[in-house]
Amino acid sequence: MLKELNYVINSLSKNGLFDEKTVESYKKPIQKAINFYDSLLQKDMHV
């Protein structure tokens, strides 16, 4: 899932829709959200 998001973000930045700083500022919160979501999924699986 993260690979796909990175691909989308990188392709947008290559097309000039985002600059580098914007891309970097989006990556961290997205990463955090995905990590949080993954941890919730793993907790559900252990129950």
Structural notes for this entry:
The protein has 47 residues and is mainly alpha-helical. It has one domain (2-46). Helices cover 85% and strands 0% of the residues. The protein contains two helices and no strands. The chain has helices spanning 2-14, 20-46. α1 (2-14) packs antiparallel against α2 (20-46). The longest helix is centred in the C-terminal third of the chain and has 27 residues, at 20-46. It is elongated, with a radius of gyration of 14 Å. The mean pLDDT is 78.
Structural class comes to mainly alpha
The beta-strand count equals 0
Query: Mean of the pLDDT scores?
Result: 78
Percent in strands: under 5%
> In this structure, how is the largest beta sheet organized?
none
Low-confidence stretches: none
User: What's the number of structural domains?
Assistant: 1
> What is Rg?
14 Å
Overall helicity: over 70%
Tally of helical segments: 2
Keywords:
single chain; 47 residues; mainly alpha; 2 helices; 85% helix; elongated
Summarize the structure.
By secondary structure, the protein is mainly alpha-helical. It has helices at about 1-15, 20-45. α1 packs antiparallel against α2 (about 20-45).
Topology:
Blueprint: H1 2-14, H2 20-46
Helix pairs in contact: 1-2
